[in-house]
Design a protein that fits this description.
Strand content: 15-25%
Distance between the termini: 8 Å
Shape: globular
Largest sheet: 5 strands, parallel
Order of helices and strands: EHEHEHEHEH
Structural class: alpha/beta
CATH architecture: 3-Layer(aba) Sandwich
Number of strands: 5
């Protein structure tokens, strides 16, 4: 990866997983800003604020890539995507969304592939190689 991402976001409710993901992303030195959020609701709030602020040249950064967990309480990954679709037209740049899950259910992968906003489906754990592959596949930075 030649240049760093401006922002990478991980949405996952599991604290130990988020701790490990933070270590992996920091060691990969692939982003200027890392946003780890433990719920879809917090992520939607962040995205709504950053989407509005991009136009105002403010400090919240819209992510280049979002790694989204599927199985979370209160708002799972599918519910997050339903709400995300309602606000995404406010963004001048659309984040690349990658489902990052422990699910081995082929129906989940098939469902993710049918959603235009989802660029990819990956199985946990997150790795530096996975980040590199996602960047090379979906972004030109």
């Amino acid at each position: 990866m030649k240049e760093k991402l401006n922002c990478l976001m991980v949405i996952d409710d599991d604290a130990p997983t988020n701790f490990i993901n933070t270590m992996i992303i920091e060691e990969a030195n692939c982003t200027r800003h890392l946003e780890i959020l433990d719920s879809g609701i917090k992520a939607l709030n962040y995205l709504q604020k950053s989407g509005k602020m991009v136009d105002q040249q403010n400090s919240k950064i819209l992510p280049d890539i979002i790694f989204l967990d599927l199985n979370m309480p209160r708002m799972n990954g599918w519910e997050f995507l339903d709400e995300y679709k309602k606000i995404m037209n406010n963004f001048c740049i659309k984040p690349i969304i990658i489902m990052l899950t422990t699910s081995i259910n082929p129906d989940d992968k098939k469902r993710a592939e049918s959603i235009l906003e989802v660029a990819g489906f990956e199985n946990k754990p997150l790795t530096a190689e996975m980040i590199q592959r996602v960047v090379e596949t979906y972004l030109t930075i």
